[in-house]
């Protein structure tokens, strides 16, 4: 059984440090370190890669928050002061990827840098960062699944339970499912696919998109707090799109790299 110790890691007077922030900072720092080392291995300029990645992180954070707020506007329209409260959670990875691509991509276009190569370099970092960052949901008691009695069930305190499940105590730890899935995606990218797809710029990133999307589609079906577009779960729709892009794009890139 899992039970969150609470969202606050350290509290000294007016200073409050939350686990969510610690995990996000650690994930970003580790991801940048891995990307830097991979850039050197691939003979790419590591300093330009870091500049691009740092801009992409800024764009990603903004995009992830705006995406979440947009699909939760019914709440934030009544509490606009909460829009900037990212330390309380509420970041959507699909919005983060879009925001990172827009800002990082704009920088590479302006500097005429190899965007596809950079995407391949950072793909494993993205998967590992998501595996770490999902534990922020555990400390915040958010992004959990339907009620369950499985041995690895997650206790959710009454203030965090959805109205239909106020009498239920234990729920699917979907944060854990997605964290383990992303850790597996990281392993596949680094140990199995990286060398096989290295000649096809952009293919490794598309492999990340496809693999992540497959796991997210399943996990999203268990969650109780999905962002919705009418009767449809937004994350499942975007995951289906990600799967299609990967299944179509990877063979095309492989075929192009084999041309004489």
Protein model, in words:
By secondary structure, this protein is mainly α. It has one domain (2-258). It contains 9 helices and 7 strands. It has helices spanning 19-41, 46-70, 73-76, 93-111, 115-133, 135-140, 174-196, 203-220, 234-258; strands spanning 2-3, 8-12, 15-18, 154-155, 170-171, 228-229, 232-233. It has a 3-stranded mixed β-sheet, with no helix packed on it. The chain is globular, with a radius of gyration of 19 Å. The mean pLDDT is 93.
Shape: globular
Q: In percent, how helical is the residue content? A: 55-70%
Structural class: mainly alpha
The helix/strand series, from N terminus to C terminus, equals EEEHHHHHHEEHHEEH
Instruction: Please state the average pLDDT score.
Output: 93
What's the domain count? Answer: 1
Oligomer: single chain
User: Using only CA atoms, what is the Rg?
Assistant: 19 Å
Strand order of the largest sheet: 1-4-5
- Number of DSSP strands? 7
The major β-sheet equals: 3 strands, mixed
User: What's the number of helices?
Assistant: 9
Strand content: 5-15%
Rounded to the nearest angstrom, the distance between the terminal CA atoms is 57 Å
Low-confidence stretches: none
């Amino acid at each position: 059984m899992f039970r969150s110790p609470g969202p606050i890691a350290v509290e000294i007077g007016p200073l409050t440090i939350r686990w969510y922030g610690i995990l996000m900072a650690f994930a970003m720092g580790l991801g940048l370190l891995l990307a830097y080392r991979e850039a050197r291995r691939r003979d790419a300029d590591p300093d330009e890669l870091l500049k691009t990645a740092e801009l992409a992180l800024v764009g990603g954070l903004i995009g992830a928050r705006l995406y979440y707020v947009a699909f939760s506007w019914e709440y934030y329209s009544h509490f606009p002061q909460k829009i900037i409260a990212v330390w309380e959670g509420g970041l959507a990875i699909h919005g983060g990827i879009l925001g990172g691509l827009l800002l990082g991509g704009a920088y590479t276009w302006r500097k005429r840098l190899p965007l596809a190569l950079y995407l391949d370099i950072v793909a494993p970092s993205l998967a590992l960062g998501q595996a770490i960052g999902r534990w922020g949901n555990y400390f915040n008691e958010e992004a959990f699944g339907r009620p369950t009695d499985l041995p690895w069930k997650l206790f959710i305190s009454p203030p965090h339970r959805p109205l239909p499940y106020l009498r239920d105590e234990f729920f699917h730890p979907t944060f854990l499912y997605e964290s383990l899935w992303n850790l597996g995606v990281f392993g596949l990218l680094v140990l199995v696919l990286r060398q096989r797809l290295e000649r096809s710029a952009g293919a490794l990133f598309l492999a990340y998109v496809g693999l992540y999307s497959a796991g997210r589609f399943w996990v999203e079906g268990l969650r109780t707090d999905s962002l919705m577009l009418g009767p449809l779960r937004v994350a499942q729709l975007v995951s289906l799109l990600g799967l299609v892009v990967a299944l179509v794009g990877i063979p095309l890139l492989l075929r192009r790299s084999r041309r004489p």
